[in-house]
TrEMBL record:
It comes from Streptomyces hiroshimensis. Residues 82-96 have a biased composition (Basic residues). Residues 1-45 form the Insertion element IS402-like domain. Transmembrane segments: none annotated. This is Insertion element IS402-like domain-containing protein. Coiled coil: none annotated.
Amino acid sequence: MIDAIAWKFRTRSQWVHLPEKYGSWKGAYARLRNWAIDGTWERVFTALLAQADADEDLEWVGAVDSTIVRVHQHAAGPAKRGPGRRARRSRPRAVPRRTDDQNPSGR
């Protein structure tokens, strides 16, 4: 069952494409989900981490690539206007424009 779960995440494939040699995809998915819910995966990874740390087999490295860091859409500022798009007015003009027949100069 662990091989089936590892295959799924290694290949990034959908569950329905799980090879028959691993058994039913529904069974593998259900097992993964149940182990996630009941904390089995957390206990396994904690034990593996403790073992590797005790053996001094870990090298802690942290890095953040700024090309993949994105802010939330509301924190990114106002929407950009594309070519040919005009800004919308949020309120009507305070003074209406004059028409030709209202021009006081008579021109």
